[in-house]
Design a protein that fits this description.
Distance between the termini: 76 Å
Order of helices and strands: EEEEHEHH
Number of strands: 5
Strand content: 15-25%
Shape: elongated
Helix content: 25-40%
CATH architecture: 2-Layer Sandwich
Number of helices: 3
Radius of gyration: 19 Å
Structural class: alpha+beta
């Protein structure tokens, strides 16, 4: 049995997906993806599933997401799902379909929060106020 593991990151959220042969079940943190609470996030994740077409019907995907907020978690889960499915199928047409629709489905956004500097009151870019007179 072929098992593929993939990961996706978005902001502070990290998702790890396990793709194996099955009947098309997708679970995010042990909850079916179709039961995500907010409709916007459910639709955002289902974009990737709809684009995959018949490929999604032959695999089971378990995704574990931790860290960050809800939006970051959904986007990290999308990346992990798409990367895992492309690696599992080895289909270049599926990969090009994802990239043509939205490159963010396969390529993570590398922007992160800037680290805070010492003696700057906990801010990353604040300056010390000066008076010249």
């Amino acid at each position: 049995m072929k098992i593929i593991q993939s990961s996706g990151k978005r902001k502070r959220a990290v998702a790890r997906a396990t793709v194996r042969s099955g009947k098309g079940a997708i679970r995010i943190n042990s909850v079916p993806a179709s039961q995500l609470q907010q409709r916007y996030f459910r639709m955002k994740f289902e974009e990737a599933v709809v684009l995959s077409g018949d490929h999604a019907k032959h695999v089971d995907v378990d995704i574990h997401v931790a860290g960050g907020g809800v939006n970051g978690q959904v986007e990290a889960a999308r990346i992990a799902y798409c990367r895992g499915l492309v690696a599992y199928t080895g289909n270049e047409d599926l990969k090009s379909k994802y990239v043509a629709y939205d490159r963010q489905l396969l390529v993570a956004d590398v922007r992160r929060k800037e680290a805070s500097k010492p003696n700057r009151h906990g801010k990353a870019r604040s300056k010390v106020q000066k008076s010249y007179r």
